[in-house]
Sequence to fold (94 residues):
Amino acid sequence: MNGKSVVQDLEFADYDSLEDSCKDYAWLITQGAPYHRAWEQYQKDRDLHALIAAVAAKYATDPQYAFLAATIAGQSNVAQAIAAARQEVPNATA
Fold:
């Protein structure tokens, strides 16, 4: 914070599975109030990097979060998983 490393004792959600964690994160980004404007913009322009940057500005404490998220999103296996998920969910908005 303010250019200095700060240790904080914070609570984080605990999930039974990676799938549950991913579903909650997807809900947060697509439905959560802090990201509503960024998600609406993404629905219009499909600019994934702009969405990641907007989310990272509020979601993450790690200054490298946007870079890491963009790197992961660019992996071919992630694109394949997203395509498969869209086929499983009728009228998916992702």
User: Anything to note?
Assistant: Residues 1 and 50 are 24 Å apart (CA to CA).
